[in-house]
Design brief:
Blueprint: H1 3-23, E1 41-42, E2 47-53, E3 56-58, E4 61-65, E5 68-74, E6 83-84, E7 103-108, E8 112-122, E9 127-135
Parallel strand pairs: 1-4, 2-5, 4-9
Antiparallel strand pairs: 2-3, 5-7, 6-8, 8-9
Length: 136
């Protein structure tokens, strides 16, 4: 192999490692993208409630301050869970924590956008899903 070929391979490896580093870069934000036409509901205070009704979260997309406690309140008649789009974004809410009439809370201490969904009634992008945008 010529020295030109070796240089080309080295350059390709360096570029590949650089792209991999960017793709796997840190940050506390999940890969959530706000759907077209949707807006964030800005919530004030350190305690925010999301109504968990039958097959929807209301409000669906909330903006809270760092350190806010978000409570999902099951006001409907169906069982629910709350799973983060990306494992580890926050501790999931299990079905037995959110039966009808029950509430479950999580505190958000990291800035970022965190998608979530109920796996019984939707996916991360369809059906029963929502997101929390945490700001300073």
């Amino acid at each position: 192999m010529t020295s030109r070929g070796i240089r080309s391979i080295r350059l390709a490896l360096i570029a590949g490692v650089g792209l991999l580093a960017v793709a796997c870069g840190g940050g506390s934000s999940s890969s959530f993208s706000l759907p077209d036409g949707a807006t964030w509901t800005k919530e004030s205070g350190n305690a925010v409630t999301v109504d968990t009704r039958d097959n929807v979260f209301v409000p669906q997309f909330i903006e809270v301050k760092k350190g806010a406690e978000v409570t999902w309140d099951n006001t409907g008649r169906n069982r629910h869970n709350v799973l983060p789009d990306e494992e580890g974004d926050f501790k999931e809410v299990q079905v037995d924590e959110l039966d009808p009439g029950m509430k479950a809370s999580r505190t958000f201490d990291e800035v970022g956008e965190f998608g979530y969904y109920c796996s019984l009634h939707g996916t991360a992008t369809k059906g029963m899903f929502g997101a929390i945008k945490v700001v300073e």
